[in-house]
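Problem 12. The chain below contains 565 residues. Write out its predicted structure in token notation.
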Amino acid sequence: MPALAQGTQLPLALQPDARAFTLGSTRSLRIETRLDDAGFRVLLAPSTAVNPVELVLRVRAPAGLWLDGRAVWRWSMVRGLPLRPGDVVSELTGAAFRSLYPHEPPDEWWLTRGVYDEPGRIPPGGREEASETMRGLYRTLRELAIAAVDRSDPVARSLAMRFPVHLRLPVYARVVDDRSGCLAQLATACPGALTYALALVERGAWLAPIGERLLAGVTAGTQLGPLLGDAIAAWMEGCQRAAPPPRDVGGEPPQPAEPAGHKLHGLPFDLAWVAQLAGTKARSLLERQRLLVRRAGPGVPATLLVAPPPAAFAPEDIPRPVRANARWYRVMRLRSLRPVPEDERERARAALCRFASRHALALWQLADRRDVTTLLSDLLDYVAATHVSPGRTTDPQRLLAASWRWHTHHAWLPQADREHVRRLAGLTFPEPALARWTDKEPHDAEADGAEPHVAVRAVTTPHALVDESERMHHCVATYAHAIAMGRSWIFHAEVAGRPLTIDAELRGTEFVLRQVLGVANRQPTAAELRALGPWLAALNAAQGRRANGDGRDDVLAADVETALC
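Solution.
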């Protein structure tokens, strides 16, 4: 048993059996811990009438995790406790809080960090004691989690850590319990098949036997190809049998226009997709699903492998690196790309799938990862309405910009279809040291009655960026997140009355021009580029003074002449 965290300032008292601790004074909570080579056991026994909480973890065969006698499968397997909720060992602090303060709801973020700073939940005068008690419990459980990781099988743990958090313990337990070593080979050679089998087992009911047969066949040394094909076929047949019959309203045939989500034993699938299983596309769907399972890496979540396959994709587009592979699957398994029979947007959906298959990683980067679902939904609406057919060579930025303009100018669309335009309002753009510049002073321009030959202003707000993209008919609006992060700086220039959009990069204290384009991506002339030279010199001079702490951002014509000398 490790030396559990104790401190003289904590209300933590050791009991005679050397395994029990009492936390708190006015409210009592007893915690019993037992640690051996196979794992540990933790029992939270409050003095109130609430039932005790028992957690048992085994890192040796038979490996597993049980909470109050019920098997649970979520343990991050890190050396400590993660700060985010979901780790069952971390959530023991929540159980302790509910035991000490049964009438108050716990705050999971506070519980996992052992910090309390919110009034109204702790009795007056007890906040400091509650915080100290929970910190002591947190450190105790953290040391137990570290000790459990140190006692785990290193080979099985290294394999399990390649998978998402929700799959680590199931993978570890299966590999440890398998004496043949075949599942360890499967986790390395074809992690998607292992993820798919565990996903079916986790969902239980009629799905669990399919996953268990697949795992049993692998451990018996059966060839993976036929095993996986039989498992996918059984899964598809079970989905078709278990799907509720289509409703017949008023004697009319059912309308399969949009996929109606349906949950069956925790498995989400589309009724329209199930309808395809009885048609001529069943074999094509099975082959696509088998290919997606075989190509999936260890970073792909289990839910993505039990979802309907996309309407179209190219196998050569699936990347091999773990992170890129997982992102490709997250993009291609979204609802917007799933096949829908007899849908008027079937052509647009297939074209968008082929485009997304080639540019999935670019779409992931252009859209925030939380917004990729909305982005693809917007693209599908745009492609279907305008009859645009994006191909594998289509530029993603230009297509997104065109979709953005279409959604912005069509006010009749549902509000959700313009989510990206509204979301940009929350971004903040950094301002350069020189926000505006002309090659003539205002009094000089008034004297001779001529307009400035060159005028440049920085684009410093999301609204101005959208206006620039619409006015210039190009895709600069898709640079919004790069601008907010300081990776790109956008300027609008007027050279002899001809507009230009400038994309610059800040390298140290100097700006370097990356792109200078006119309306509809017109290339600038050599004279226009030479005319921008004084502005660039003035901008870099102002940026250098800002870096040196001068703080003076405005640049006069005299400064420009000095900088050019």
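Discussion. The CA atoms of residues 27 and 279 lie 65 Å apart. Students who got a different answer should revisit the alignment rule from Section 12.3.
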